[in-house]
Write a structure and sequence with these properties.
Elements lengths: L5 H14 L3 H5 L2 H15 L4 H17 L2 H11 L10
């Protein structure tokens, strides 16, 4: 996994932000980053769509419930581990 990819850096920054209580500001950015995740993982890295959509669903559910720490963990430890580049 390439942690220097801008998308991984954005996920880490967003996870840190949710842990720091910046959920109001980050809430407006969440849909965009999740859309980028779908684009990169499904269309570029050929990850099965159901895997990605299940994680997106978990993220949205955590956001809806106001589970900021749970959402941060999902972003950092589950979403960020998805492949986002084509296998060599």
């Amino acid at each position: 996994m390439n942690h220097s990819h801008p998308l991984h850096q954005s996920l880490q920054a967003m996870a840190d932000g949710f842990r720091s209580g910046n959920h109001i500001a980050l809430g407006t950015e969440l849909p965009d980053i999740l859309a980028q995740i779908v684009e990169q993982t499904v269309k570029v890295a050929n990850t099965p769509p159901e895997v990605v959509h299940n994680l997106i669903k978990k993220c949205l559910n955590a956001f809806e419930l106001g589970d900021w720490l749970g959402l941060a963990d999902l972003l950092e430890y589950e979403v960020a581990t998805l492949p986002i580049e084509q296998a060599p």
